[in-house]
Amino acid sequence: MCRWLAYSGTPVLLDTILYKPAHSLIDQSLHARMGVETTNGDGFGIGWYTQTSGIDTPAVMRDVGPAWNNRNLREIAQHVTSPLFFAHIRASTGTAVQQTNCHPFRHGRWLWMHNGSIAGFHEMRRELCVAVEPSLFPGMEGTTDSEVMFYLALTLGLEEDPPGAVARMVGLVERTGRAHGVENPMQMTVAVTDGESLWAFRYASGGGARSLYYSTRVDSLRALHPDVSFLQELSDETRLVVSEPLGDLPGAWNEVPEHSYGVVRPGDDHLRPFVPAA
């Protein structure tokens, strides 16, 4: 499968999160502890928002090589500061290793990334693609189940109601899968953002969803670890959502419950149950 992280909070250099932690996402590209594969070398991508006036869409950089030795990624990470960014390292589940299949995917202000798979996707791919709104369909460039999930969610109201749209998307995939004889088609952790709020989902049709964690409130971490200087530089609103913890700092990480989703936004973080729509 894949590994990913989503950051929201005090603007930081991407390098601070992508490279410096003991078990950073770059380290996970070679030494993942909780993924299906130890190595995630089938491409990578980053998407980030800037505070530049007049720029409404996030920047995206994707490549097909492994993240651990990409000089362009290292260069960007050492010079780009962002208050909200996504990063993803890919382990293909059968679709081609090409730039258009690397995450995150972008539509307007929106970014989307996924870890997991749709079981039986190749058999139901045409049916799912036909369900995408015709005006959105030209935006799909790749061949992954992840991108189809994104465009189905957009079709089903993502821009107005992200949790509801993802629930409707999963419900559609499950109904389609079962019509094709696949009892438990959906396996996912998903992150999606409009540049202001961040939603993260953990769900699997038959249980056993892929790992997902969120960081403890920064003010609580400062109380636990007053000697950690990095925490002094972050606002109380800063949050990380990750496929697996970036380090072993006691009290820093909390597992997202299965069949739930979380919302990260200034002053209003919460976890709620996730139920696919009938």
From TrEMBL:
<feature type="domain" description="Glutamine amidotransferase type-2">
    <location>
        <begin position="2"/>
        <end position="278"/>
    </location>
</feature>
<dbReference type="GO" id="GO:0016740">
    <property type="term" value="F:transferase activity"/>
</dbReference>
<dbReference type="InterPro" id="IPR052373">
    <property type="entry name" value="Gamma-glu_amide_hydrolase"/>
</dbReference>
<dbReference type="InterPro" id="IPR029055">
    <property type="entry name" value="Ntn_hydrolases_N"/>
</dbReference>
<keyword id="KW-0808">Transferase</keyword>
<protein>
    <submittedName>
        <fullName>Glutamine amidotransferase</fullName>
    </submittedName>
</protein>
<dbReference type="Pfam" id="PF13230">
    <property type="entry name" value="GATase_4"/>
</dbReference>
<dbReference type="InterPro" id="IPR026869">
    <property type="entry name" value="EgtC-like"/>
</dbReference>
<dbReference type="InterPro" id="IPR017932">
    <property type="entry name" value="GATase_2_dom"/>
</dbReference>
<keyword id="KW-0315">Glutamine amidotransferase</keyword>
